[in-house]
Amino acid sequence: METVSTNMAFGGVQHVCRHAARSTGTDMTLSVYVPPHAPGARLPVVWYLSGLTCTHANVTEKGEYRRACAELGLIFVAPDTSPRGTEVPDDDAYDFGQGAGFYVDATVAPFDRHFRMWSYVTEELPELVAAHFPADMARQGIMGHSMGGHGALTIGLCHPERFRAISAFAPIVAPSQVPWGEKALSGYLGPDRAAWRRHDAVALIEDGARVDALKVDQGSGDAFLAEQLRPELLERACADAGIALSLGIRQGYDHSYYFISTFMADHLRWHAGRLNG
Amino acid sequence: METVSTNMAFGGVQHVCRHAARSTGTDMTLSVYVPPHAPGARLPVVWYLSGLTCTHANVTEKGEYRRACAELGLIFVAPDTSPRGTEVPDDDAYDFGQGAGFYVDATVAPFDRHFRMWSYVTEELPELVAAHFPADMARQGIMGHSMGGHGALTIGLCHPERFRAISAFAPIVAPSQVPWGEKALSGYLGPDRAAWRRHDAVALIEDGARVDALKVDQGSGDAFLAEQLRPELLERACADAGIALSLGIRQGYDHSYYFISTFMADHLRWHAGRLNG
């Protein structure tokens, strides 16, 4: 693992690292914030999955998570949203190909070779983070935004034993039922919708996935709310399944990092409460 | 004044605006954060002047000021660092020309036509902000980073009746004595060093400018510390003049927004205490 940069911030260190990823067959860049801590301490880890078009850099620059992570003693890990590079298939659209990995292992050529973000985030990265940072892998939480909220919900619901806290900002809760998701899941996984269900939070809950609680915030002024995000579908699935969903509809907030940064500390406090409880 | 964008954040509104500036003869873009407030209330204003290469956007995205401004009830205004445009003279270097206005009114051709950032920040912008936002112009503070710290110190020292609070992150305290400043002041103001003294915080204090207090934070790991920033010169001038300088040398911090964002809330609390006192 190569260090791209380290910067001291809020008493801890913001790392940006690059490594040759076996999952994707590409170099991958990620950011890891390690808060101030006692020598030898192992700290809980919160994973943050970003949305369409983003890299690790968006949340690292605009997410305003470091103060809360420093106060709460949380490691914060932000990977990229897809493999990248001239050898990696791409698409002219912003919502498919590079920058739009959708946190799946693609099965459709030519994407099946590199677009393996599910394996990257659930298997390869945890090993890497455990090996290089003072992480207590028995205490992990996961959160994300938009496409990354979809990733956090689906990965969290499929690994309830691993993630004690799962939350999202403006997530795509039912990709099988919205244009962004239908395009991505058909493009990466093919036309058989049965294969999409484990990459759809609402379908996973309908199919029996269970956690005790989820936390979601959603701006009422989000331009993607009605067509792509549809939090009411998650609300209904959670109600039917007995999952305690805390859904905050935030009046006037949009889809941007101005929204995310406003509610980031609340989410991190909720994660810390569950990870330290 | 044209609205470029508005985004809700921390209960208030982050505005980005553009206007045709008479001082510079160019369009200028700035950001203004207005915190949540009671209808009809007039709020204190903190001016933030940015450093070399920056626009309004750097601090707006990375400065992490909105939470503190919302809690403290402060309007936060961030202008650009120079005139810009194809008609504006420029220089290949990052430290002169566009992005490097140094908060002076240039007297040397061809810069004297557009590079009038002193007038822009001290005269034109306050009128604009007072006219368009719920600002209490009797309560103003000013802060800045690096070249913008130089701007905040010099503008503040020349207008002690206007600014009740003056602070800086890693400021250029004595431009007449360091390479960045010698290049910029000779390029904009000509070779007569007497004309530089009102644009040099240390020289201004030596020449009799007085405020009761200044607050400065400086990273010990800042690559520009020894050659360009030299806080010990300000420390000596303040000691000789009886100005209470609070100088925090922050171990391990560099010159970046990771440093600024770490100490932003402290500075804003200090401003609020003086503006509301």
Order of strands side by side in the largest beta sheet of chain A? 1-2-3-5-4-6-7-8-9
Percent helix of chain A, as a range, is 25-40%
Oligomer: homodimer
In the CATH hierarchy, the architecture of chain A is 3-Layer(aba) Sandwich
User: How many beta-strand runs of chain A?
Assistant: 9
Q: What is the CATH topology assignment of chain A?
A: Rossmann fold
Radius of gyration of chain A: 17 Å
Q: How many helix segments of chain A? A: 9
CATH hierarchy, class of chain A: Alpha Beta
Q: Would you identify the regions of chain A where 5 or more consecutive residues have pLDDT less than 50?
A: none
* CATH homology group of chain A: Alpha/Beta hydrolase fold, catalytic domain
Order of helices and strands of chain A: EEEEHHEHEHEHHEHHEH
The CA-CA distance between the termini of chain A, in Å, is: 32 Å
Structural class of chain A, by secondary structure, is: alpha/beta
- Domain unit count of chain A: 1
Short descriptors:
homodimer; 277 residues; alpha/beta; Rossmann fold; nine-stranded mixed β-sheet; 9 strands; globular
Describe what this molecule looks like in 3D:
Two copies of one chain form a homodimer. The first copy, chain A, is built from nine helices and nine strands. By secondary structure, chain A is of the alpha/beta class. Chain A has a single domain, classed as Alpha/Beta hydrolase fold, catalytic domain (Rossmann fold), CATH 3.40.50.1820. Chain A has a nine-stranded mixed beta sheet, sandwiched between helices. In chain A, a hairpin with a 4-residue loop joins β2 and β3. In chain A, α2 packs parallel to α9. At the A-B interface, β1 and α9 of A face β1 and α9 of B.
